[in-house]
Each structure stands twice: as structure tokens, then as C-alpha cells.
Amino acid sequence: MGVAQRQRQVREYRGQIPSPGRPTVAWREDRVRFWAAIARGVKTEDAAVEAGVSAPVAFRWFRHAGGVNPGLPARVSGRYLSSADREEIALWRAQKVGVREIARRLGRSPSTISRELRRNASTRTYRLAYKASIAQWHAERRARRPKVAKLVSDDRLRQYVQDRLAGVVQTADGAPVGPAGPAWKGRNKPHRGDRAWVHAWSPAQIANRLPVEFPDDESMRISHEAIYQALYVQGRGALQRELVACLRTGRALRVPRARARQKAWAHVTEEVLLSARPAEAEDRAVPGHWEGDLIIGLQRSAIGTLVERTTRFTMLIHLPREQGYGVIPRTKNGPALAGYGAIAMKNALAATMTELPEQLRRSLTWDRGKELSAHAAFRVETGIPVFFADPHSPWQRGTNENTNGLLRQYFPKGTDLSRWSAQEIQAVATSLNHRPRKTLAWRTPAEALDEHLKSLQQVGVATTG
Predict the structure, then answer these.
(1) 79 touches 62 (CB < 8 A)
(2) Digit-coded pLDDT (tens) for 204-241
(3) CA nearest 294: which of 285, 304, 306, 280?
(4) CA-CA distances (angstroms) from residue 313 to 179, 282, 303, 307, 435?
(5) d(Cα 314, Cα 309) in Å, to the nearest integer?
(6) 406-445, pLDDT tens digit by residue?
(7) Closest CA to 432 of 289, 290, 314, 307
(8) To pair with 260 at 20 to 30 A between CA atoms, which of 18, 44, 173, 386?
(9) Per DSSP, which regions of 258-362 are E strands?
(10) Sign of the alpha-carbon dihedral angle for 279, 284, 290, 292
(11) What backbone phi and psi angles, to 5 degrees, belong to 372?
């Protein structure tokens, strides 16, 4: 039998194969390692190193999957040949080892090896050469069995989901309202820009509303995860990708859960976590432990707030604009001119707290904001150790959060706080400090602090005598 006739028989056996382009540069095992690293919260470029592929390939995998882990099993079922098996077959075939001997070495049936050599050999060469990479490519291409998504096959269900996701907000007379929103560019929601007004039901709301509206129609059922995958995963073909802008987050790609839980604050180290704060600060028995934060206003204006945990005494920090604000255009990584950059915040905070007696400068607990990223220099200048609360845990600074709520009576949200001078915000602090508090047995914070200072003086006099 001639080579041409043999090639023709193989083609007829396998069917015509349209050229899908260049074979993939990485195999299933590489993708498994990549997604395992992503599931641990590793960055995409670092996951590429673990998988042994280039960064562009890894980013393409992540983008095409929409950030959704495909959940590939760690290894192929033993029923099928792996890429390592095919490498062994290619090596032994080049050494002229027979089919039965290859089967014996691999512990496979001779028919399995014979079928592998026929079906997955390279037919674009003159001879039926067997190459491991080409064979693996053929096997992975043939193994694809994409399941048709329910939203693709059911037009009625797809229309229901789209109407609840992207339905236009209308007035009572049916007129659409709201901005049109920016054109979809494959990125996240616009930063500080208008978004289109839509119904914006969440996938969970849609999935749980279906049984309410269609109690007797089992075909009108879908899980919220199926809706998310239809939005994020390319190739599903069920929902248009731009509909992700209708979700509350507006993310173009799904964020892996482990990444969302990561602590991305580089200025917070182990020694400044809340767990390292002295135990005496927890029971409020000893004054001198403070809690601090910012209240933010319009046009990046802010006022710093400090509250003493025992006496609830409040101090406000004036944060004026830096020279050039409003004149120098905002640039990424440019100078912080709003008044609460790291250096400006450190200087203003140090100037305020160094006016306190040494006995009232025991510690400072702050939010995770980067305005206090110069906390190390602040501690060197003032001797006050700084500790940071856990992320998304405002109850760990409950005294400060409660005080900020009281301050919003004077400085409402959405107002420009930079218009108030240092004397004016000091007047507000004085007003709060002379307001009786139930937690202090209806004494004022000023009275409670004054009593503590007098007790310190008496102890000092007695020690001297």
C-alpha cells in the first residue's frame, strides 16, 4: 500500500479536519496548575510562572474564562492517554519499537496504541509522522463536548433574564430616564462617570424570582451561577458580554474569591495589626489610647478625627489644601494636593497629638486608609505606636465610628469640608466635648478628661513628697 493511499484512508477514518490554527502551547496539566494557583489568590503573572507558560498566555486564559475557574480535574481519567504517555509513544516510535511492545510498556491494549497512531498522527506531512504535541492537540480538540447553555436554547428564559438585567428605567408614563452610559469597551464600570440606568436585578434575584412568577413552569428555572457564567465566560453565547455593566459591581472579569479576601495594604505589617495592641487598650481602664479616621467631603476634602477610648474626648485635625490644588491637573502617582496625603497627614497628626501630655499618648488605632502609610515616621517623631484595624471591621473602632456619626450633623456628606478653618472645626470639637454622655454617667468628655489629668497630678505630687 502506497503512502498516499494510506494517508487517504486515515483521512477518511478520522474525517476532514479544518485547520484551527497553531496547536496550543500548553496542555491540560498546565491549565490545571494555572487555575489552582489562581484559586489560592496568586496574581496572574505569578500563576503563569507556576504553570510554566508565558504571561500573555496566562492572561488570555483568564480573560477568555472571564475569571471563572473552569474546575478542570487534576488529572485525566486513566481511561485516556495523557500527554506524558504520548511523549513516551513518540519516543519509542522514533526508536522503531513495535506497537505491541509499546502497549506492553505502557500497560495498554495494542489496539489502543494502534488507534492512537492512526487517529492522532500528523497528516500534513508526507509520512504519517507521530509527534506528541500534535497528537495531544488532536486529542484535546476531539475531546471537547461543549454543553449547550440553557439560556442559548430557551429564548423565553433568555429574554426574561435580559429584561431584568438590562431593562430600561421608565417614568409612570413610560418615558425612559437616566443617562445612556458610556459605550462598552470591555473594561469595568466607568470611574467617576455616569452609568446607564437599568433594572439591574442581581442574578440571585432573578433566579429566586422565577419560581414565584412561574410556579408551574419548570422550564423557567435557572441558577444564579449559570447567569454569571453566561455573562463572564466567552463562548457561552447566551448573554452579551456588555451586560456585565448592568451588575452592581460592573466588573468585566470575575474576581477570584481568594483574591477578594487578600489584604492589599502594603503599609500594614504584622507588628502593627490590631492583635499587637496592648491589652490595656481593650478594657478602656487606662486613658491615652486613641482611635482615628477621616471624614470625607466633596471634592476630596477631609477632616481628621481623633477620639480617646476611655473619656470619649474628641480632637479634630484641620487638613487644608496643598498649594497648587485645582491648578495642577491630577495625574496618576502625582503629588497629593488634597490635604490628606501620607506626609501631610503625618505632619498634621503629629502636630495635634504632641500637644497632649505624655500619659495620654499611649497608642493610636487607625483604619486601613493609606493616608497613614507614613505611620513609621509618625511613631519615630511622636513615640506613639500605631495599630491598624482589620479590613471591613468598623466595630473595632466603634468609638470613632460613633463620633464620626455625630460629626456628620455638622459636616454632612456631599459638602465641601475644606471651607472650614481650623478655628471653626475646633469649635465643633469643643461643642462635642461639652455634651453629656450616657456612657460617662452623664458627665462630659471634657470633665472626664479633666478628672483624669487631676488624678495624674495628685499621683505626681504624692510621689514627689
Answers:
(1) no
(2) 999 999 999 999 999 999 999 999 988 888 766 678 88
(3) 304
(4) 46, 17, 16, 6, 10
(5) 10
(6) 999 999 988 889 889 899 999 999 999 999 989 999 999 9
(7) 314
(8) 386
(9) 289-296, 302-308, 314-318
(10) positive
(11) -110, 30
DSSP secondary structure code for residue 2 in this structure: -
- Give the pLDDT confidence score for residue 465 in this predicted structure: 47
**pLDDT at residue 463 in the model:** 47
Q: Name the amino acid, one letter, at 5.
A: Q
DSSP state of 454: H
**Residue pair 294/372 in contact by the 8 Å Cβ criterion:** no
48 Cβ contact partners less than 8 Å away, ≥ 6 residues apart? 34, 54, 55, 57, 58, 59
* DSSP H or E run through 132: helix 132-143
Question: Which cell numbers in the block locate residue 368?
Answer: 486601613
Cα–Cα distance, 400 to 295 (Å, whole number): 11
185, three cell numbers: 469597551
Tracing cell 507556576 back to the chain, one arrives at 50
Residue 39 near residue 258, CB atoms below 8 Å: yes
Label residue 352 exposed, middle or buried (CB < 10 Å: 0-12, 13-18, 19+): middle
Q: What is the SS3 assignment for 199?
A: coil
Helix (H) or strand (E) holding 365: strand 363-366
Phi-psi region of 356 (alpha: psi -120 to 50; beta: other; left: phi over 0): beta
In this structure, are residues 280 and 286 in contact, taking their beta carbons and an 8 Å threshold?
A: yes
Pairing between strand 363-366 and 302-308? unpaired
> In degrees to the nearest 10, what's the CA dihedral of 431, 435, 437, 441?
130
- CB atoms under 10 Å from CB of 307, counted, come to 25
Report which residue type is found at 259: R
Q: N- to C-terminal Cα distance for the chain?
A: 118
Give the residues across from 314 on adjacent strands.
307
pLDDT at 173 over 70: yes
The Cα–Cα gap between 91 and 370 comes to: 58
- Cell 463620633 belongs to 403
Q: What residues are paired with 110 via a beta bridge?
A: none
Whether pTM > 0.85 for this model: the answer is: no
Write out the three cell numbers for 284. Answer: 478602656
Rounded CA separation 25/57 (Å): 8
Q: 211: how many CB neighbours lie within 10 A of its CB?
A: 13
Q: What is the pLDDT of residues 249-302, one digit of tens each?
A: 888 888 887 776 665 566 888 888 888 998 888 888 889 999 999 999 888 889
